[in-house]
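During the second half of the funding period, the structural biology subgroup turned its attention to how the target accommodates small molecules. The most pressing case was EPZ, which had performed well in the primary screen but for which no bound structure existed. We therefore specified the complex as follows and requested a full 3D prediction, including the ligand pose.
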Amino acid sequence: MQKIIIEGGQRLKGEVQVSGAKNAALPLLFATLLTGGTHRVGNVPDLRDIDTVEKLLSILGARVSRQNGTFVVDSSAIQSEEAPYDLVRTMRASVLVLGPLLARFGHARVSLPGGCAIGARPINLHLKGFEAMGAQITLDHGYVEARAKKLKGARIYLDSPTVGGTENLIMAAALAKGTTVIENAAREPEIVDLAQALIAMGARIDGAGSDTVTIEGVDELRPMDYQVMPDRIEAGTFLVAAAMTRGDVRVIGAQADHLEGVLSKLREAGVEIMEEEGALRARGPRRLQPIQIKTRPYPGFPTDMQAQFMAMMAISEGTSVVVENVFENRFMHVCELQRMGADIAIEGHTATIRGCRTLKGAPVMATDLRASASLVLAGLAAENTTEVSRIYHLDRGYEGIEAKLRLLGARIDRVPA
Ligand code: EPZ
């Protein structure tokens, strides 16, 4: 186990390069299961979740090699169509093997992911979509088994715009017989990235990024050769780091059109945001202004930025409000922020944050990926020393974060816990 130690109070200045997006890389790597041959996926971030994908692809029989951010995957000889419990429970996105395996082999058996720290996170909408395409779904011993001689195109209405569900169903529909229309689809940029990669493989997809996606099934696809998009959540996290430390940071690779909700709220909080060629620059004010945010599916304010913004609100001038509409338990960072002096009250899905002048460094514990980012941000702005334990959560989604922050002037180290 390791922990991160931060001496707070440094103003962050300089430039930082965003890595490839975790939430685009995961579906893209699983999409290599859709067809044999040698696939190349570039700009893949070096993260624990990506290590899990590598393990899972190998267990299924793919030959995987990985070199400075490029994956070469030969998925010609898949021997198994089963994603085992011990991998799925560490990374629920493993359920994204369902669509590709079902579409290519007519069979997939995946451990049910179970809940996680931030919520129950069922996959009922994924399964309902597969059934609409003619798959038989059975559940036993904590595994979901899907079988279909040949998936058929279908009209699928998603009760809620699930990101993973939309991705799973697009991948399944790519090789189905006939046309699939997914209504109330999720619109995240990572879904557009996946669709662009699939189209380059020969898939016929219209409307990715809108709430209605139409997929004309084809008989077979070519191997993928694709570069993962930049990580908009990592980019947003660094913009908040600048905002909280009265810093001046240029985030290279950040794309304004993927961060509209985040940029509008940062500006409302008094942060100066400059949109430059291939980068975004943030200058933090002397005192941050209070704001209200409500998390929503894209293009609404992203739930994956909620914890980071709460750390920022904790040192804003006045009272801010956060409503978490996407997950049922995504306030795990609150009690840790309170240990650092944050004044936060929770009522159901609503948190009320009364800003204080400064937070005090303290030993705190990470509970989930974005909560751990929130605690690091709080430590950067706090007085004295903050120790963040259980940082394996952080390593799931942030590539080399302490090296990147150190380059910006942070006093931050990773030490054995
Ligand atoms: C993706 O998770 C992201 N993960 C999450 O990022 C992100 O928070 C989430 O989308 C929402 O934007 C990846 O892309 C790997 P959902 P996913 O299916 O696909 C309910 C991070 O920090 N739901 O859109 O699992 C579900 O319970 C992670 O990087 C159903 O009810 O999210 C949740 O309340 C955390 N039935 C809501 O929808 C279903 O079948 C959103 O879930 C599916 C989902």
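Two results from this model are relevant to the next phase. DSSP finds 13 helices and 24 strands in the chain. The longest strand covers residues 2-7.
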